[in-house]
Amino acid sequence: MSTLEKKIIKKAPVVVVLGHVDHGKSSILEKIRDLKITEKESGGITQHIGAYEVVLEDDKPGEKKRITFIDTPGHEAFSAMRARGAKTADVIVLVVAADDGVKAQTKEAIQLVKKAGLPLAVAFNKIDKPNAQIEKVKTELSKNDILVESLGGNIPSVELSAKTGQGIEQLLELILLVADMEELTVDLSQPAAGTIIESLLDSQKGPIATIILEKGVLKEQDVIATDTTWGKIRMMKDFQGKPLETAIPGQPVSVLGFESTPRVGDKVVFYPDSSQALENIRKEQEKEKEEPSVFFVDESKKVLNIILKADVLGSLEAIEAVLKNIPQEKVVLRILKSDVGDIQESDVKLADSSKAAIFGFRIKTDSNATSLILQKKIRVRIFDVIYELVQGIRETMEGLLSAETIRKDTGAIEITAVFSKRKKRQTVGGIVAEGEIEKGRESEIIRDGATVGKGKIINIQENRKDVVKSKKGSECGLLFESDVRIEDGDFIKLYQETREKSGLG
């Protein structure tokens, strides 16, 4: 194709926002929506599309500039996109709280930035806080190889407050400036290709996916496919739920028509017809070896079978990524099914046959499944916060562990004199060598470093007066009950035992 046949246009930058969990990523995105997308214009933003556009006036009269924000990926889903070769984002905004500084997830985000090799801008949020220390935070970032321009580096930054809206306009202008320096352009004449950034299974409409194109143009009736599924586009909508006839690169578009739910992060490409799309899927399936359907688990370990259901695939992948971090040395976590959509009767039947628990995230249970859950007494727990769901699974795993006997040594006495023995009871004297000795406490008789018997202290005397306990360094006499005769030089070691459930580690 000659240069004249190409249709080169300037591309709207696609932005992903990363940072620590409490530093205000979501708050910044919400404030941008509030300021730039009015209710009148949108009629309500389509839930779960995973991205939205903002429009800014250009310097040239009548022209507008657009920015697309990826709203839902978080660290896990963005990692999935990068791992599958997707380069959806054009700019990364790293959010750091001015009152908190660099945290563990900030460092993780920095590593993602380095691996992605994308242009970066830093947003210092929460400058409205009285304890904000922006210069200190900048220094912390510099120690992690993020040197902002005000400290002599080449990374632009902006100070803002998601709470008050201060600095939001400056952030948008900064993003456009970074994008302009990258000279982002696309060729509309090339076959369409992009990335799945969100997908869900609608109970009435079927699979719905959000795509951000990287090249080409999409239109209704086009055949598209990923490595695992394909479809003919039946309907396209923008992030506000308005119908679209065509979609261009950088624009988030919700697509109806996939045969099954595509994976978040998968590449999606245009095909001339369905036969070529299916042939590509067949080839990809041959490349990937299927995971064995039979699980081999150490019989000494407990196993928790679960069925995982979530509202959208982005949530599902994020949950699965966190679950991988749960220690499984003592209890193995086995996910029998991981799917999007409400809990169905088939989920309950699988849980019943496999003795599994069902965990859900922001979903519901249909009426048929509800009655079967009660009948079969299936464990079902639904959460609205990922952290709480993971904690619930962890607690369920810990519940499978048997209680362990925990022993704590409390004291020892060295026997220096043996006075009398009457049946099982004998009177001895000694010096408390460790801790303290207490009447009624279980104890062992130690001779030459080995345990030769057990017994119990019936009474303790100091200076011929009865006492409940005697501390280290004290001389005392004991009335001791045991089947083993105590000898001079023995030690009586006292201990207590409790039954406790150990954690997963």
Overview of the molecule:
This protein has 505 residues and is of the alpha+beta class. It folds into four domains: 183 residues, Rossmann fold (3-Layer(aba) Sandwich); 94 residues, Elongation Factor Tu (Ef-tu), domain 3 (Beta Barrel), CATH 2.40.30; 98 residues, 3-Layer(aba) Sandwich (Rossmann fold), CATH 3.40.50.10050; 98 residues, Elongation Factor Tu (Ef-tu), domain 3, CATH 2.40.30.10. Helices cover 24% and strands 39% of the residues. The chain is built from eleven helices and 28 strands. A six-stranded mixed beta sheet has the order 3-4-2-5-6-7, with helices on both faces. It has a six-stranded antiparallel barrel with strand order 9-10-15-13-12-16. β12 and β13 form a beta hairpin. α3 packs across α8 and α9 packs parallel to α10. It is elongated, with a radius of gyration of 33 Å. The chain starts with 7 loop residues before the first strand and ends with a strand. About 6% of the residues have low confidence.
